[in-house]
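Changelog-adjacent note: as of this version, every example in the card shows the full chain rather than a window. The one below runs 93 residues end to end.
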Amino acid sequence: MLVVATETIEREQVRATKAKGRGRAPVASCEDCFFRRNLLCALDLEDPCATFRPDHPEGLRPPRQLRFHFRQPGRTTAAWAFPSADEQASLHA
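Full-length structure tokens:
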């Protein structure tokens, strides 16, 4: 039991050290989750789940979405296309 607790503590220390060394945002935890803090979470997990949302004073915010980038004008036809009906008929005639 002591070995398991020691390994868990070491893993947490390594995780915290890596997060600090890279300059990234702090590691998310269930204690920081909007749902956990407002007693809306029904899960009993140690790590944050897929529905994790950070708790803010303003309340629940929607997750950030990727930006939509328009393609540059260029090729208007496909590099390869199916042959037309006439071309297929001539191939099989």
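Structural remarks: The mean pLDDT is 76.
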